Amino acid sequence: MPNVLPRLAACLVALLLCAAVAVPADPASPQKAEMAGYLLVPHEKVDAKYNGGFSMYVAAWPLLKNYPGEEFQSGLFGTWMFAQHDGPKPEKAYSDIEGGLGWWRDTRFATETPKFIMGGVALNFVEWANGPGAGKGRDWNKPNGKYAVAQLSPWVLWPPDGLNVKQGTNGELFGYGYLPLPLTASKKTTAGKDAPTGDQSWTLFLNTGNFKGPVAFFVPHFWSKPTLERTDLAGKFLDARPSDPNKAIQMETQHVPAFIAKDAKGDTYARIAPTQFPGKPGADAPLIHRVTAYNRAALWDGVKAWFAGGKEVSGTIDPKTAAVHTFKGGGGATWQIYPPNTARDKKAPVAWNTFATPAALDEHTYGYKWGDAVTRGDALVTLPEYYKLEKDKKDKERWVVVSAKDVPADTGLAKAEFPRTRAAKPQPYITPDDSSWKKPGPAAGPFEAKLGDGSTVTYYWYRFADQPALLNADLTEAERDALQKRVELLHKTWTKDREYLPPPARGALAHLDPAVLVTPPKGLEIGYVPVVTRQGIKE
Fold it and tell me: At residue 372, does pLDDT exceed 80?
């Protein structure tokens, strides 16, 4: 029998060589990247006398088509409210209110729909406060702002993961603002030390489709506590100072998922996760509306006189006490696409102005005119997904829009995926089992509410002055009793069926998640508030 093994081996080698020629090499794996930056909104200044707080209406919508997981972080349009100073601002003393709608890396029960946080920042971020029971970090052994916000409304639950907006919100306007209320008296000492605390309780007011009115406030002690160590800053923060009416308005995005890849020629392309903005066919979609600054007559003067025995105040803000900022169009974008750990000077910008033109839709409303490169839907437009890195006339690199068909297949970008991602079982928020939660403790509960984000909150009804935030606010029992009486006046008079902030002149209002709206138990309608003690996925 002849030896066939060499012949078979030769044929096998030939077949392998043919296969190597016939089958193309695997495309390069795209590199993970991100898109981040600011959208800048210029607006006209108002007189400095309008230093008694602000309100605004901002669009609420799902920025990304699919929630991509905890790396994603972005605010929607918002602002930063700083203290106003008579002279130079104190150096190295950052402190403000800068919350708003968005998604954050520590959001545990996120969906495509944004949530709202309060975002108060104590001196240089030593603490921050996002709402009742929510602050810097999640470790209750380091409260760091978790006791900084007191619940005021008897009709709204505040989950520690953020205040929920109704699922399916698609560009409706969310109205909110902060005005100071004289709920507590100013003090010459703080925590027994020779450092003053002011009398301003900056209070969050909402104007939504299913709730209007005050919800919660920053306790003055939150702002003054850092001055125990920095006595030179006593009286310089929002517990004692008015607000600067001329604030920046921007949209801050820290991470939108993306991929970058090169083709065989060495050209670089990128693909971003499907990113959406409000945009109705044949109609303008407002993004920011009626940014308003108030003077002290808006609420402060009348409420202070009322608490001293004077005339009752309805809580409805007189537009005559306000100045509305105007828009003239213009604005910029600093969005960039880049791989992780890219040096700042190596990040190339997105050619934003090739598909979006900022515009004043009217003198009090700001939005974008969308170009042909976006994909239009019923309520939202989707930004271009594909970009190519090119140089402009000044030899500077930038990402320009390209169509999907013009992206070489060997980049592998067409196969990149941006799936919806959520932790299978997020860790619950659980409040501590200590004296401020148990002594004197709640008056009723526990109760539960199933939220639109899939989580369940457990809450109790506390006498207003006995809620944990106020037991940790450097208030004596007499001071808390005086505060209780003032809030009972508010609960009797400032009902949920009236206007507070001046209403919008255009657009539909966004709604809160209906599950966060509650009714006090019988006998607890006045002077009691719901406080969330746990949030998690129910077994």
Answer: yes
SS3 of residue 373 by DSSP: coil
d(CA 324, CA 320) in angstroms, rounded, equals 10
Domain containing residue 85: 73-251+290-313+432-536
Q: Rounding to the nearest 10 degrees, give the CA dihedral for residues 315, 183, 201, 186.
A: 140
The answer to whether position 319 is within a domain reads no
Question: Does 455 reside within a domain?
Answer: yes
Tell me if 64 sits within 8 A of 112, measured CB to CB.
yes
Note whether 461 and 444 are within 8 A (CB).
yes
Cα–Cα distance, 351 to 524 (Å, whole number): 56
Enter the tokens of residue 301: 């003067």
Residues ≥6 apart with Cβ < 8 Å to 23 = none
Instruction: Identify whether 154 is part of a domain.
Output: yes
Distance CA 30, CA 21 (A): 24
Provide, rounded to the nearest whole percent, the portion of the chain with pLDDT above 70.
Answer: 95
23 within domain boundaries? no
Q: What is the pLDDT of residues 395-410, one digit of tens each?
A: 999 999 999 999 999 9
pLDDT tens-digit map of 114-168:
999 999 999 999 999 999 999 999 889 999 999 999 999 999 999 999 999 999 9
CA distances 224 to 135, 240, 428, Å, are 17, 9, 31
pLDDT digits (tens, 9 = 90+) for 15-27: 333 333 333 334 4
**Do 65 and 384 contact (CB within 8 A), yes or no?**
no
Longest dimension (CA), the chain: 119
Q: How many residues does the chain have?
A: 539
Burial 454-478 (b: 16+ CB within 10 A, else e): ebbbbbbbbbbbbbbbbbbbbbeee
Query: Is 65 within 8 Å of 274 (Cβ atoms)?
Result: yes
Q: What is the mean pLDDT of residues 192-217?
A: 97
Total structural domains in the chain?
A: 1
State the pTM of this model. Answer: 0.93
